[in-house]
Design brief:
The chain is of the alpha/beta class. 41% of the residues lie in helices and 17% in strands. Strands 3-4-6-5-7-8-9-10 form an 8-stranded mixed beta sheet, sandwiched between helices. Strand 9 (263-268), helix 11 and strand 10 form a beta-alpha-beta unit. Helix 1 (68-76) packs across helix 13 (307-319). 50% of the residues are buried. Residues 1-22 have low confidence and may be disordered.
Length: 325
Amino acid sequence: MTDPDFSASGPVGPLGPAAGSGSPVRLDGPWTHRDVAANGARFHIAELGEGPLVLLLHGFPQFWWTWRHQLTALADAGYRAVAMDLRGVGGSDRTPRGYDPANLALDVTGVIRSLGEPDAALVGHDMGGYLAWTAAVMRPKLIRRLVVSSMPHPRRWRSSMLSDFAQSRAGSHVWGFQRPWVPERQLVADDAALVARLIRDWSGPRTPDFPDDLTTDVYRRAMCIPSTAHCSIEPYRWMVRSLARPDGVQFNRRMKRPVRVPTLHLHGSLDPAIRTRSSAGSGEYVEAPYRWRLFDGLGHFPHEEDPVGFSAELINWLKDPEPDR
C-alpha cells in the first residue's frame, strides 16, 4: 500500500482528501461537526443523536474519530453522542499552555456546559480516561455516569509507573516523551509512521483486521497537523515532571477524593501499554456502584478492536437504572 501524500494542499492518500475543505479531522459521516467555546479555548466536536448527553474523550495517538462506531451506536440507542477533540489535538485549539490534567478536565466540563446540558455520561479512553477520572472528582455534579477504558485511576497510574517495573517498562513511551523536541520529530517522521506502529503494537491478537492501513492513515494525517505532536505529548510531560513538584503533589492529593458517580471500568486483557493489574484496583477510589469488565483477547483499543461488543457493554450499562457494584 502506498503511503499517503501529505502535500501542501492537504493530506491525500488511499482515503482521498479528508472531508471539510481538505481537513484531515472533519471526516464525513452521519454526525455533524461544529466548534464550541469552553475554558478559554475552542473545541471541535462531532455529534449525533438526541437524548441524554454522552461525551466521548479520545486517547493517544488518536482524535475524536476513534469513537466513530460508538457515535452511531449511542445515537441509535437514544442518546446525544458527542465526541470532542482534546486541547491541542484534531480540530481543537492548540494553545501554548494548559495541558495539566486539572485544566484539561475543566475543558471537558466546560464543553458539557457549552452544549447546554446539565450533566453528561463521560466516556474516556487512555488519556481521555485519565481526564474522565479527574473530571468526576473535580466536578461531580456535571458527571452523571463515568466510563473509563484502558486507564487506571490517576493515583493507581502514578503508583504503578513508580513501583511496578513491568508497568514502567510497558509505559516506556511516557518516559521517552520527557526528552525535548525529539519525541515530536519521531512522531511526525515519515508521515507519522510511528503512529501506525504504536496502534498496531498496542492492539490485541483477537482482531487481526484492526488496524488496517486505511484506519492508520487517518490517524497519521491528524498527527501531521502542525503542533499536534507537541500538544499530544505535553500532558504526559506534565504527568512525569510534576511528580515531585508542588502542583503534582497537590493534584495527587486532590485525587484522593472518592468518585461518587456510578463507574464502568473497561480493559483489554492483553493491553500491552496499560497492564491489567495496573488498572484493576481502581475501584478503591469509587464510592458508588463500580463495574469492572475485562475483554478477553483485546488490547489497548477495545472500542475499535471490538466495536460491537464494546458498544453493547457501554449501552447496556448506561441503560441499567441500578448498575451493580
